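Q: What residues go here?
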């Protein structure tokens, strides 16, 4: 199949036409075609061919197609499976390199180096996790013991044990701005509250009938 115009696919005008031969429908996505994976604009109908969808047409006003959505979901599930397999394979290989070339008994915390005969240097980062007990009373008791040691005790304790400010979204949501006190509290918190969008999660649940038939 010969279709696609690399030059036209580079720009993203407001209205992009499908590049499939003889089609004049507005494009909704870009698909990869040919051995060189050229990016070509495609309408929803032609996006359902075997070509993978590689991008969305910015500013497209084409109505959402369930068929295209299903194809994108399938691509995501396939990519996720590849990613998980690669992550597991990489982790297994990393652990084998570490356990074989850097026995745990001889490792130091931090970076461990091993120079190979070809000049390459294998660097293994050995991390050791430290955290205080979740029992705040026990931690406070330890702080009291340190403070009682002498003048240098509190100085050292403040440098070693630090308390971190934590934000409770559930309690924040309970603030009633019609209450003057709540409104002032919210205004004060909002001054130091940083809000940003996280990475979206995506899950596809199979129909109950399909699950029961398995």
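A:
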């Amino acid at each position: 199949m010969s279709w696609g115009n690399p030059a036209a696919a580079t720009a993203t005008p407001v209205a992009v036409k499908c590049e499939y031969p003889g089609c004049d429908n507005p494009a909704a996505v870009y698909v990869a075609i040919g051995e060189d994976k050229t990016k070509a604009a495609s309408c929803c109908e032609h996006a359902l061919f075997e070509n993978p969808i590689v991008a969305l047409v910015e500013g497209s006003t084409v109505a959402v197609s369930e068929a295209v959505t299903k194809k994108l979901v399938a691509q995501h599930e396939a990519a996720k499976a590849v990613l998980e397999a690669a992550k597991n394979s990489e982790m297994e290989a990393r652990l084998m390199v570490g356990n074989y070339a850097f026995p745990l008994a001889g490792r130091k915390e931090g970076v461990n180096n091993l120079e190979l005969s070809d000049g390459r240097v294998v660097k293994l980062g050995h991390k050791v996790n430290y955290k205080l007990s979740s029992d705040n009373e026990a931690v406070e008791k330890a702080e009291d013991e340190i403070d009682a040691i002498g003048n240098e005790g509190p100085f050292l304790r403040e440098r070693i044990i630090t308390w971190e400010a934590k934000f409770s979204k559930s309690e924040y949501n309970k603030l009633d701005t019609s209450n003057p006190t709540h409104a002032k509290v919210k205004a004060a918190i909002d001054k130091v509250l940083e809000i940003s969008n996280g990475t979206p999660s995506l899950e596809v649940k199979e129909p109950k009938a399909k699950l029961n038939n398995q």
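A: Context that may help when evaluating the design: The helical segments are 6-10, 66-101, 136-147, 152-160, 169-173, 180-192, 208-213. The chain has seven helices and five strands.
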